[in-house]
Amino acid sequence: MGGQGGRDLEAVERQLGRTPSVPFTVVARCPDGHPLVIRNRPIDAEGRPFPTLFWLTCPDAVREVARLESGGWIARWNERVSSDEALAAELAGAHEEYARERARWMPEAIAFGGVGGTRTGVKCLHAHYANHLAGGRDPIGAWVAERVEPIHEAGPATGAGSPVAVVDLGTNSIRLLVASVRADGGLTELARDMVITRIGKDVDRTGRIAPGALARTVEVLGRYCRRARALHAPAVRVAATSAVREATNREELERAVLELAGAELEVISGEREAELSFLGATRGLAGALDARGRPLEARPPFLVVDVGGGSTELAVGAERPEAAVSTRMGSVRMTERFVAHDPPTAAELEEARREIGAILSEVEGTIPAGSARTLVAVAGTATTLRAIDLGLPSYDPEAIHRTWLVRERAERVLAELAAMTNAERAAIPVMPPGRGDVIVCGALILVEVLRRFGFERALVSETDILDGLAFEALEAR
């Protein structure tokens, strides 16, 4: 999932008039990009349950919903729920779904209740509206939306047209980006999210998507599509990569995508995946500034490496990709093939390293990777390694984006992770739930790319194939 950046923390502090009492991530934004809905950690610093998972923070939205509450609508809805069995069943489903969503981040939190911390009835219209904006099936939240929107007009820096929504359905994770185009051609994020569902579990061995993996992925996809529509994106583009490319039984997934997104699933080739990652990572990179306002020392040609769960893509070019290749090595695939112990043994890692080396030898004969002057690393392996390297107390995309991961430090982090158990890696504050067991092989791939092609450091980018898909969708209008 996304992180709590410094600017977001400052913005939410201004919105609430105080410092938030629990860590959070932004799951929905207003047209100018300021936080609209945040996702709170299920427990506070003392370990006590925090009842509100999704919290409406935009003051303008809070005021509009408060007008409905002051008009007595909470009592009216509770009266209707008590006499309307169908509505009561629909609301009960919203409470149950909310509890399951909270438990995704902390399994024991399923006992903390539903929307707003209650299990029945309507307690808070703000909480229901926040749940609707976050993608929940919430009849009360949808009703609120009809009566209070639009909260804002499009901001002055926003270009024409409705938002675009894209989903990257990868081997290890499923990710969402909803964005509008600015007048300068850049993107204003309205939502960016990630959940690890591992649709590619055992696909390398069986060639098939497992029922449990499919169910996990479809559940999150449904929430993503509802969130995109709540943020007024007219269509949702869903693109699948390595695991789905290889699966022989993707018909059920295709049906689910058509039903939920209203469009056919796009299964993109590995080379196309590499090109889209290059587009998302390098657009605006030439001439970009670092966090201190100084010119970023990123010179073309660029070599973009995207370490995924089932495959790793590499693309070389300056303004556009001039050569691209997709390889059958990824964090999930290599872990399933080579790692049988926890922590992995030295022999297992050496065997994985030899396989990675053999694949990279083939890459050398396919694309001119050695001609690149800057290595750009995208996706969860690279961003998580950089977050660990920085020692961040929580995941902060602003602190990570377009900063340098030095090879020596990447090697050190790899060694530290390889010596840990899965439980110890999962306990690292910046480790996304579900990544800890495959991060070692992902890190091994990235380190071997650095070594093979002679780079002393990699520029880590938070923008990647998702942004490439969004730019492509906007240009196609």
List the helices and strands and how they pair.
Blueprint: H1 6-16, E1 24-29, E2 35-40, E3 54-56, H2 59-70, H3 73-83, H4 85-105, H5 125-133, H6 139-148, E4 164-169, E5 173-181, E6 187-196, H7 203-206, H8 211-230, E7 236-240, H9 242-246, H10 251-261, E8 266-267, H11 270-282, E9 302-307, E10 312-317, E11 321-327, H12 331-338, H13 346-364, E12 374-378, H14 380-390, H15 397-400, E13 403-406, H16 407-418, H17 422-426, H18 439-452, E14 457-461, H19 465-475
Helix pairs in contact: 3-4, 5-6, 8-10, 11-19, 12-13, 12-18, 13-18, 14-16, 14-18, 16-18
Low-confidence stretches: 155-159
Strand content: 15-25%
Number of strands: 14
Question: Whole-Å distance between the termini?
Answer: 29 Å
Please write the CATH class name of the largest domain. Alpha Beta
Mean pLDDT: 93
Please work out how many helical segments DSSP would assign.
19
Any idea how many domains?
3
How would you summarize this macromolecular structure in one to three sentences?
By secondary structure, this protein is of the alpha/beta class.
Description:
This protein has 3 domains: 6-148, no CATH class; 164-267, ATPase, nucleotide binding domain (Nucleotidyltransferase, domain 5), CATH 3.30.420.40; 290-463, Nucleotidyltransferase, domain 5 (2-Layer Sandwich), CATH 3.30.420. 44% of the residues lie in helices and 17% in strands. The chain contains 19 helices and 14 strands. Strand 9 and strand 10 (312-317) form a beta hairpin. 51% of the residues are buried.
